[in-house]
Amino acid sequence: MATQDKDLYDILDISPIATEADIKRAYRALARRYHPDSGGETASAQHFQEVQAAYDLLSDPAQRRAYDRQRQERLTTQGAAFSWEVLSSQHQMRAIPEEQALYLLINIKPAENADGQRLPINLALVIDRSTSMQGKRLDYVKAAAHQIVDELQDFDSLSVVTFSDRADVVVTSQKLTNRPRIQARISGIWAAGGTEIFQGLSNGLEQIRRFHSPNTMSHLLLLTDGQTYGDEDKCISASQQAGTEHITISTLGIGEDWNHTLMEEIARQAGGSCFYIAHPKQLRHILEQYVQGLYGVVARDFQLTIRLPEGVHLADTFRCFPSIDRMLFESGEINLSQLRSDSRIQIMMELTVASQPEGQHRLAQLELSGVLPATGKRERLIYDHEAEFVARPEPASVPTPIINAMNRVNLFRMQEQAWEALESGAHSEASQRLEAVATRLLDMGERDLANVALLEASRASQGMRTSTKAQKTIRFGTRYLGTK
Amino acid sequence: MIECPSCGKKHRPGTLFCTDCGIYLPTGGTLRTTPLPTDELPQSPSAPREALSDEASAQQPARHAIHIEVLDTGRQVNLPIVSELLLGREDAAHGIFPDIDMTPDKGLERGVSRRHAKIFRQGTEFYIEDVGSANGTFLNDNHLTPYLPYPIKEGDRIQVGQLQLKISLE
User: What is the ipTM of this complex?
Assistant: First the structure.
């Protein structure tokens, strides 16, 4: 029977934590659509039977519990391609009339022996060629692009778009069959004009779409050293659109004068990362690593979904590894892009939990899913987080990985708050916050970063403007703490 | 609501780190922020104070030095406890110079972090605190929660990474 291998919740198109009322509502809507007697075009006896069978089982609490248990076992911790472990800051919660904080740390790994596939890479390089790029910067960018052309295989595809006040397609999207020609075109890039990012971004996306298919790793890399004016919103919505098409966008900011808020947002919307290139010399290495990071794909369209019952809210979500980054969490889904055979991903969720009566409660359901390149099938893992609410919880210590990860996340947030205070003109608050950041950095043995923070604290207290270099050093430096 | 013992900011129960000052809230950092009573300060070499401390030591032996034996290599370290001692591995490039440097005992291969643990005195008690090391610190085979101080006493065994240490206090 078809219902055997289909998920009952999928059949009714409801969440696995749907209430009884939700189930009934979904059933009625589907019954109207599929019932053979409904007379509509959508009537289907077979479909209706499926819906009916799913409803019969899920509407009976006892049967539903049994089904949930089975389903959980089927979808537990270890899939063919990836596995995970979810740690929580406390197993027992205090039954108090107050809202409480709860942390979930999700460690995601490729399964042992998981085969990483070298899928065709579909790359678009979108390069800022504004006047400020002239000289060394552009030379290093060209050298890095040449390197990528050598690194890619014949079945990969590449396009190169430059932008200043307008965009030019330097290399139209093509397979890597004529490397010398592509490299010659790259060598011919010259610098002049301003910085209009949207032009470059939209042209780059147009190019990358030509060879984009489910089984290609489509990544757009946006390199800039400056600010764009007036087209920020267009950039973000273009990126959002790319994200829904499973095109990843990563951004690389060279030097100190680029807008990190915008570059981070563009990357976040499309499942990518934002890199700070303090010196253009680092570019070649970072790009090379980035491209090699697309080899060995264990799962693509990789995403994490969280479903929360009433009374539980997601306060904040961070990726903690490979680097610290606030995650976009619209409609409860995080776009993790892909999982590689030689990497791991760590996500921290900070939840607030409203007061609950004593007893066992389900506080969250997490679902991790990705498409296995070899079969094209989506694999999922599901985890229910339950906690017991008791008057007096047994004393238990918080798992060490949670403390270490949260320590770094908290420091990242502290420096964010400092910059926010500075931006709003609250100089003495900013100074205090930066001092606290410096203290924590010293505690962690990061003397160089701590000194930068202290210096900025004293500048802020004197009402001086912060140095953009220091801001980027601290912002990007705190991201990689403890991950080297 | 719970209150940060360091800066007074209020947080939901269960919160791990103060968002303002960064202190780890479950241990409250109280042990670290209480000012030391003046008579517990490290001794100055002046005579009257020494006389005082001799009297005090009649009731309770005051201990000012720590003696650490690395059981794996037999190396012995003798140190006065002034304020706090950092145990770890030297990394000059990052400006990390631990008071107790485990480099000679193959600290790197044995999984000792550059900043591994702190040993300090509070009143007459001595404490050890793991400072977020990668491989953890064990006190008499019990795994220590990072950033939480644990009292240590004469004869305790400490494990950092894979290295075993024996503590004596003088």
Answer: 0.77
